[in-house]
Each structure stands twice: as C-alpha cells, then as structure tokens.
Amino acid sequence: MADFTVKTWDGTDAGTAAIELKTARPESAAGILHRAVIRQMANSRQGTVSTKTRAEVRGGGRKPWRQKGTGRARAGSNRSPLWRGGGVIFGPKPRDYSIKMNRKERRLALRTAFQGRAEDLIVVQDFADKLPRPKTKELVQALSRWGVEAGSRVLMIVAERDENVYLSARNVERLRLISANNLNVYDLLHADHIVATSAALEKIQEVYGED
What we know:
six-stranded mixed sheet; alpha/beta; 6 helices
C-alpha cells in the first residue's frame, strides 16, 4: 500500500489518499516491464514503409543495348538495382510489428509501473472547477506550487477529460495529459513527475485493484 498527501489547488495539504495494487515479484518485475515497454513501442509502429523491387519499378522492358560488341558491360534492363532509378535490393516492405502479450501480464506490468513510481507521484484535488476557461499560465503556476520543477517531464492523470483542462495543458512543454482509462507503462516510466487527481487515483484503484 502507498499513502499520499493530497494537495489543494493552492499547494496546501488537504488530507491523505492511499492505493494498493498487486505488483510483480521483485525478481521478475524488470523483465515484465521491459516486455511491456517493447510491446507498446512496437505496436505504435505503422509498418507502412515500402520500396519497389526491380520487378515493380516502371519501365525497363527493353534491353538498353545489344549483348556484345559495344565495349560496355552487358545489361538487360535499365531498372536494375545497379542503375540510377532502378529497384531496391532487400528494401523494406509493409509489415506488422505488433507483439502479443497476455492481458494479465499487461495489467500486472501496469500496476507494477504505477506502484513503482509512488515516490514521484503527486496527488491533488480535482481542479477542473479552478479553470472556468483555458488558462495555461494558471496551470503552470499550479504545477510549481505542487512541487514540479520547470522543464520536467510531467504525466498528468485525470479521471475524465475536461475540455478546459485539456486546452490549458496542451501547450505546456513536456506535459502529457491522459485519463485514468488510458494508463500505459511507457508514459508512467518516462515521466519525471506524475500528477494525479484524487478521483483518478480512486478510478485506478477501482479498475486495477483486483485482477
């Protein structure tokens, strides 16, 4: 179990919150987190890059010159990979980079990553009502009051997306805003600080508390 001090919009303490998640054993935690990160990065690749072989390049139907007597090297097509404008040898073709991982393993990796970042987690009260209109400056000032250093990579987790919060956060450099339903291992491990609302913490406990 991890206990956190809940901060208000002004940065003062306003109570405590706790979360308890089932995590992987210490000896296997690094391995399952590594597989989860590799899977997420591989699944984000589109795999649409494509090159043409000599059979797919337009042209090249006529023999450039006769086989013998010219003094030049023999050539059967001007679309040979040796020629400018020719095909590509062993070039990339569309492929599927996706890697499969069991659902229980994915959820275990996510819980392990979240619980492992407990020291860098800042829990705050819901602040959507503090931003009646989009205001990036006010959100940046609030982050400073919460103890987030300027220039840090910040992952902000909210229970549900609020339009004003989203518009205020989207222009903050190195800040990523996600909902509790979209947690992923890469973002949890990549951030320097994690800011989560108390409602988001409750939702994470509800969704991932039991498997």
